[in-house]
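Workshop exercise sheet. Pairs work together: one partner reads the sequence aloud, the other fills in the structure field after running the prediction. Swap roles for the next sheet.
Pair: D.N. / O.F.
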Amino acid sequence: MDEEYDVIVLGTGLTECILSGLLSVEGKKVLHMDRNDYYGGDSASLNLSQLYRKFRPDQAPPTELGRDRDYAVDLVPKFIIASGELTKILVHTDVTRYLEFKQIAGSFVYRDGKISKVPSTEMEAVKSPLMGLFEKRRAKKFFEFLQGWRDEDLATHQGINLDTDSMKTVYEKFGLEPGTQDFIGHAMALYLDDDYITKAARPTYDRIILYTSSMARYGKSPYIYPLYGLGELPQSFARLSAIYGGTYMLDKPIEQIVTDADGKFVGVTSAGETVKAKQVIGDPSYFGASADGKVRVVEEGKVVRAICFLKHPIPGTEDADSCQVIIPQNQVGRKHDIYIAMVSSTHNVCAKDIYVAIVSTIVETDRPELEIAPGLSLLGPIYDKFVDITPLYTPTSSDQADNIFITRSYDATSHFETVVEDVQDVWKRVTGTDLVLKKREVEVTG
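Structure field:
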């Protein structure tokens, strides 16, 4: 292969596919390679045979689960926040023309041994069992304060400075109980742990406003989800890249990342042939051995995920056909939250009357499966279960000098905002400019 590319992208995870699509649109000559014979990398959606082959190579899928082609089971469960950054990228690139979205029916939080709906309207807040009568009044004042905040109008600040005061100070000002702080911080601001409480309140304010504006957009929940599973997302960006001249090669084992005497990227060797390019972007799994010291395991280390097939909706969720349930760490004596994401045949990801629930968290002990037990216990009888423990990798440096740009592993969060942060970070390092997006709406069915 004598042809030289501007960028070679390794791995077809969502992060890599978004970058390859965006770079192709910018006129870059992109070659995209993946060792797998399917799109999506770690964030793929697998059919029934692929799922059993991955976790239980010796076992065929049970016939009672239905047809292979009815399944698109996500390996990494995440929902799209309706007003979030991923939505902006989908709209900006017009990738929405390849996708159809459906709403997630409800967002729930675990408190004092039971599941309650995260209030989505004032009426729901008034009826919510999450707070007593007086606490509801305090919470109402807190939300009115957030909604009424205007940076330029000191009268709306009530003596608070979002950039210097901690979130603890804000909670204390409104006298909010620890349980209320839990559901605001974890089910609305979507923090994985409580570190945010001692930090400046501005990011939390931004996250809560994002949640409430997403909720207001379609009602029911702030989340949307693509029909046929999350694997549709990388494929759609791959189509976008192809339209603009990008080249895709699946099932290409990568033998070597080639660098020159100064350690600068030169090309990629596959099947004995080396393709040259100016830059390479890839997921961490491609840089383990060949680019020594390029990636490290992050402090939190690993994510445990259990993919569960159920024959019923999750009890206590009002028979929702899809939902998110967050178990704040305080409720179960942990450092990190536990997430449950459930979808069903309504989203064309499994057979009729089957529900797919995925329970995940950051690993804290040497018995990861035991750590997700509080989540598994909420699911009711489980028909089948596949447990996966994945290391979390991050690049060791953001230095552009070697022209090697490595993305981060997918974390335990139940949404894509951290993935987009990674896209924006890599984009800036590769191009030297900020990623600027247009604002438009996404159409959602149901």
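Discussion prompt: Residues 121-218 form a domain with the Guanine Nucleotide Dissociation Inhibitor; domain 1 fold (CATH 1.10.405.10). What would you look at next?
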